[in-house]
């Protein structure tokens, strides 16, 4: 079976075949044969050659969380059906958090540099400075002070500076 | 001793206090807001009261509602925990006025220490060194700008009513001062309802070292040694340890005496903490006093064997503190990490969601303080700290190794946490050497903040195995159909082992 996983805007294509407790996994033109058991729901014990991989996986509403050696990765299983996804425009500022806009430091047409503070959003009683990711010119500002914003909402559109 | 205590808090600290009360045979009353109705602190308490609306001002910060309910259930005392109403003199006074014992110092002392300017003036009179700065009442912009220039740069703008890094800004140059003052005032206004700020000299290579105090109502004050809390992000502590790797016997002696002098000068009672800033030349300055139990109190408990929460209860009930300073010894080393639902690679922004799985590390000398469990929803209403992990061992090296092991086995799935970040900090060569300041995270992990690690091969293999295991149900169906008399046929829609 073919599976596509998305993590941090990167897609990983994996195939997996199962025979009893043996799994044949291909990724990036390499094949890995592993022996695996699910010791408790979501808790996997995997043998890859002389190496052991211990992992705990949970299935949320949309995302899976993978725990490996103290690190946790948020992963989404996606279907690549040829339907083009609406791509995030480079440079646009998406809200990294749900909260309330305290102030907006830019207006349309103003030039911005990377790491400029563009907005201040209050969440969990803290003012969070939102930094500009890319240099450019502000095309449009969709928020104003006092407005509540959702996670990932587009706040500001930026025309990236041409190199 | 009290028969019934109400705990005006939530999360891990409410759980911690309830357990101490129960061990002492005290009946406990939890309070909760709508979103916390199934939270662990509600489950373990003997009684609980619904405060309704999750907005803090309507629930955990609502003095009238809490006092009214405490009276209704005949609670003799209220433990405020930390945060929320813990350092609110009006709350302490409202308790006293209603005939309920507030477990903490008197309202007057809370008010005095809560005003950072007055606190410094009072403490300076007790011959405890304080840092140069402007602590005046004139709050207009031109006065602040003028005073700021007089102190010089870098300097610190700090909310008078502040705490936890809220309403605090570092200013490196004169050109940044005006904006920093305005921003700090705005944040202070919204967090504390008071926009007054002070300015002070910014100390080079500063360490944050604090002393735990216990004081009874009969004038006996002791300190329970220091805690090193220099590892901070956004001016909030994330890793604390005791003893401090920089501490020497003579310095501990002097600072401990200063801490006791400071507490004595204000007539302090109950558990409290004197925070000092220590510079690269071992000069120390009084910063502020926290008139409550600290988040990081477990490391002191681990190295002294003293249960601070139980002593808070005993002192509040009027008991004399029988422990003498000379009898106290510090054994071994303890380390605490705060587990936050936040994203260290994205400016430590809080992460919200449902905890799909929580599985905590266990072992000798590993302590978990937690107020969450599997299926708990981390909401945007409250502080994103989920739990605390404390280890204690013979020495600092052992503690670091044990903590790294424990963090590597700490499973919290469903929100982004700071666990892997904590591990990286602990394993940093400079941390291991004990070369830490309050700038540590900024100095060594600034780049890390923007690094997004890719998915490792092991994670992909585990995911593929997981999905392969969980999409094989057709086979089971086929077995079922093969035998029409199988008892599985009559099971209905139950699934096994899922």
Q: What is the fold's blueprint, element by element?
A:
The complex is a heterodimer of chains A (163) and B (498).
Chain A (H helix, E strand, L loop, with lengths): L1 E6 L2 E10 L2 E6 L2 E11 L2 E6 L2 E9 L3 E6 L2 E8 L14 E2 L4 E6 L6 E2 L4 E7 L2 E6 L4 E6 L6 E2 L4 E7 L3
Antiparallel strand pairs in A: 1-2, 1-8, 2-3, 3-4, 4-5, 5-6, 6-7, 7-8, 9-16, 10-12, 10-15, 11-14, 12-13, 14-16
Chain B lengths: L3 E4 L3 H13 L3 E7 L6 H5 L2 E6 L10 H10 L4 E3 L9 H9 L3 E2 L4 H8 L1 H10 L7 E2 L6 H11 L3 E9 L2 E6 L2 H19 L4 E5 L5 E9 L5 E13 L2 E7 L6 H17 L4 E9 L5 E7 L6 H8 L3 H9 L16 E8 L1 E2 L5 E2 L2 E2 L2 E3 L6 E5 L6 E2 L6 E9 L2 H13 L2 E3 L5 H8 L2 H5 L6 H6 L11 H13 L3 H10 L16
Parallel strand pairs in B: 1-2, 1-4, 2-3, 4-5
Antiparallel strand pairs in B: 6-9, 7-8, 7-9, 10-11, 10-13, 11-12, 12-15, 13-14, 15-22, 16-17, 18-21, 19-23, 20-22
Helix pairs in contact in B: 4-5, 7-8, 12-13
List keywords for this structure.
A: 163 residues, Glycoprotein, Type 4 Pilin, 2 domains, four-stranded antiparallel β-sheet, B: alpha+beta, Dna Ligase, domain 1, five-stranded parallel β-sheet, 17 helices
DSSP helix fraction of chain B: 25-40%
Question: What is the N-to-C succession of helices and strands of chain A?
Answer: EEEEEEEEEEEEEEEE
Low-confidence stretches of chain A: 83-87
What number of domains of chain B? 4
Shape of chain B: globular
Helix fraction of chain A by DSSP (H/I, runs of at least 4) = under 10%
Low-confidence stretches of chain B: 473-480
Beta-strand content estimate of chain A:
over 45%
Tell me, what is the CATH class of the largest domain in chain B? Alpha Beta
The strand count of chain B comes to 23
Largest sheet of chain A: 8 strands, antiparallel, barrel
Number of helices of chain B: 17
The assembly state of the depicted protein chains is heterodimer
Find the CATH topology of the largest domain in chain B: D-amino Acid Aminotransferase, Chain A, domain 1
